[in-house]
Each structure stands twice: as structure tokens, then as C-alpha cells.
Amino acid sequence: MKAAFYTLGCKVNQYETQAVAQEFLRHGYVVVEEDQKADVYVVNTCSVTRMADRKSRQYMRRMKKQNPEAVVVLMGCYPQTNPLETDSLPEADIILGTEEKLSVPDLVDRFLAERKKINKLLEGGRQAGPSGCPVMEKEFAELGEVRSMLGSRRALIKVQDGCNRFCAYCIIPHARGTIRSRSPLSIKKEAISLIESGCREIILTGINTALYGAEKGFKNDFEGAGPDWEGVRGIEIAVKAINDIPGDFRIRLSSLEPTVVDSNYLTGLLKYEKLAHHAHLSAQSGSDAVIASMNRHYSAADYLDMVRILKEFDPQYGITTDIIAGFPGETEEDFRKTLELVSKAGFLKVHAFPYSDRPGTPASSMKDHVPAQVKKDRAARLAAAAEEESLRFRQSLTGSVQRVLPEEPALDASAATGEVVWRGRASNYTEVFFAAPAGKDMTADFVDVIIEEPFEEGVSGRLVPDAQAGRQRKETEMSDCIFCKIAKGEIPSKKAYEDDKILSFYDLDPQAPVHVLIIPKKHLDSLDAATEEDAQLLAHMMLKIKDIAKDLELENGYRVVINTGEDGGQTVKHLHVHLLGKRAMMWPPG
Question: How far is residue 176's CA from residue 447's CA, in Å, rounded to a whole number?
């Protein structure tokens, strides 16, 4: 038998569809494309907008027309929030919400045996309220190791479910329930499996990813595993767990909510060298009045401060966002402030939406709803302003060397050049197009591309010749090095000591009451990279440690730590010494 899958909405839905498809494969099904004739059609729905609900209904009707005997499964946020409405849809044979998705193949068997409609949301006496049926799960529902990848080298890992922020326009907390976080050990295990299978980019995703580990009773499996785990919290736990895995790959966060994170939170993430230089921060508006009306607890200034932290770390840091045009009560002045935020933030991409009313949300009952035509006009103006800023950002990449993960050929081979144009993603999420010899599989690993100009919604460039790749990448890494920028004064720091050769500054994530870093101003990747020429520099640095310790009044002793390489726990590729004191130190350190 054949099964087809149609997925709307977020990356969590994409991941869960992959998990359900794997379950069908285990039951002996053949998985086919969504528009092909199949025996079972599974629709994994989104309910962020009414348009998404409409698309789900249209697909079901289209597939039932193509194969009237097929079994149609409707699952996800749309039925979870509208169980009675979806129960009335004649095309839906099986209905379930956001829970028990791995049971779908068994439900299909049950339907084929009984030939009676199944609605899991209304079974067992469950009562549907104004916002749908309550989500019953209180713990993270493990879906097993999901091995399907986006393309050939990128993969999703779901780390979290649920949200407790209740933004005024959003129905999703009712669709997904309370916060549940996946075990850090389980996340790391799946990541190792994917990396061993050839994955080069792992995307951590959740309903509100930044709320990872925020629920009462959450257990960090790595707590107490060593001093480098002290003070690690939130999504940083999952990032560090994967960052510690040996190998050449990168980590990407699907989104971070400004309702949860702040500048300090972001600063703590910047030390992980495998974390992509890209953040999706949903601004939603640039007007403080509208942001407050949305029940989002930050200001436009707070948001721009987060942008500043990222851009100071790397001027080419890619920032993407979501913005709603025409939220109830939004005035022309409010909208002007949103355009102002777009011009200041320097976004790579803005997902601009006209406000979509969702019954059951506080925004639905607000006064002063913006007329439909005004919403449409503002969304168009917002999109135009966003495109200007995106073009400006992409132009700024010209001449830079970007490390790109190729995904797929974008254009067929040219008869004149014998080359194929490939599409891939840079660390900052910019789409990069480049030419490569026809017949050569470029997906095996990262490539270095010199950016030449904006192209379509991304940029185009040329491959760095193999002989130059190492040198070009090294120059790029040095220009991106956070410690080099601190040494040059491009990033502010609280200094403990400085001379012409070295700098000592306080660690932003201290592991002891006194914790400073000591770095050479000359860039050295690690202690292993030092040569005889560096002997005097290293001697000077080591001798100065006792003077710095004395100035810091570490009279009862102190610990000096140099982390070298991945197994040594080195997180920044610039030689640095940790000087810790003012507390008793364990041995062994872990």
C-alpha cells in the first residue's frame, strides 16, 4: 500500500511528518509524493492562519477526488483547535490532534476493518471548549530517532513542544499545550546518529525553542558532568550537548522568541563555534504599544539591543524575523515605527503577514480592527521595505568568503561551460548560488564560496580553488573570531589586565566567583598551533598569570585551565587561559 503526506506550517510539523512516515514504512507502506495516487493521505495541519485551515480542506477534497477509496487522515493543530468543525468534514476519515501521531498506521488498520469515522479528539468523553480540546500530554512525547533529512545533509531535531506565552493573536498554546522538553541525552543521541549518517547541519526546532528546559521538574542529564556545565541553562543545554560532539558540522536554531531571550541570553550562546551565525527573532511589530497589546514583554529598544549584540559579534550575522501588519489598534504611526525597526535591524529576510483573526484568541475580541484593505496595503509596504534591507544586507557580503553547505542543483548544466549551478546555505542563512563541474556531487561537504553579487533572494559567487580554500577559510575565521574582536576593542569587555601582547577580561559565563580569560592578542587557534616563534609570547602570558591573580586577590590559590581541541572542551578557536578562584576546586575536574 502507498501513503502520501501533506504538511503545512512549522518545522516541528515537518519533523513530526517525517516521524509518522517512518512509522508507515515500518508497517510495510511505500511513501509517495503528496500529489500522487495513494491508499492513505495524511494531512499534518497548521492553524496559525485561516488560510492554512483552508489549504488543508482543499488538499483533502482534491485527493478524495483523485482516489475516492483512499483513507484520509487529518491531524495536528487544526483539528486540535477545531474538533467539532473538522468532525463535520466528510473527506476526513480519521481525525486526531497534536498527540498520538505515531498511532496513525494502527488507526488506518482500525478504519479499514470497521469503516467508521474515527475522531480521537471526541473519544472517551473528551469535551471541546471554545479553543478546542485540551492537550493531555504532560511530558515530551518521544518519536524515536527520525532519520529523514532535509535534502541530503540537513536534518531537524525536535527538542521541545508547547508554549505558555499566550500572545494575544496566537492559538498555538491551545493547540500544543504546556511546555515539554526532550531529554538532553536523547537529543545528543539522535544528533550523533545523524552526524554518523553524513549530516552536516542540525536544526534544533520546537514550538517555542527558547523555552527548552523551562518547565518545572526538567532534568538536565549533563548537570554535574564537569565545570563547563555549571550555569548552562535553556536551549544552551541542547546546543552545548551537540557542540561537544566531534566532527565538522554546524548547529542552527530554528527560532528564538524575544518574549523569552534577551541580550545576556544571546551572549551566552555566541561562544559555541558550531552554532550558525543566524537567528530568527520574531519582532512582530516595531511599536511598543502594539507589542504590549500583543502580550509580548519586550520593547523595540530591547529587540534592537539583541540585534546589536549579534552584529557586534559578526557584522554578517543573518537575522530573520516575522512581522504582523495591521494588528488590531495599530495606527499609521505604529506602522511607521515598524518600518523604522526594519531599517535599523538590517534583516536578511522578513516574513511579512497581514493580521489573521483567530477566534478564541484575545486579539479576536479587541476593538479597532484594521480594515482589510489597510492591512493588505501595509503588508505590501512592509514587504517592499524588507526587500530593500535584504538587498542591502546581501550586497554587504560581496567579496567575503562564505562557508556553504550545498543542497541541490538549481540550474541544469550549461552547454557552454559544462557547469551546473548549485544552491546552498551559508552559516548566516543566506542562500548562495555557485557553479561547479557537471557530474560532480557537491553535497558531501562544505565548500568555500567568494560572494560576487546579490542573485534572486540570495547571492551568487564562485568556488574558492582547492589550493586556496584553507588559507581563505583561515582568514575568514580570524576576521570572525570573537576574541580577536575583543582584543581589538571591537567588542567591549570588562578588562582585568592589558599590555601590548596579552589581554585579560572577565568571562561572561563565570564558573567561579572570580573567572577571567587571558588571551594573546596575536591569533593562535590553540596551544597546538603555537610554534617556536611564539615561545616568548607564551612565556610572557604564563608569567603574567601570577600578577593577574595577585591583582584579583586570589590569595588562597587559583586554578589555571587551558582547553585544547574538541575533546579538551575548547569552544572558541583562539588560544585562551581560564583563571578561576575564590572557591574550592574539585579534583578531578570532570
Answer: 39
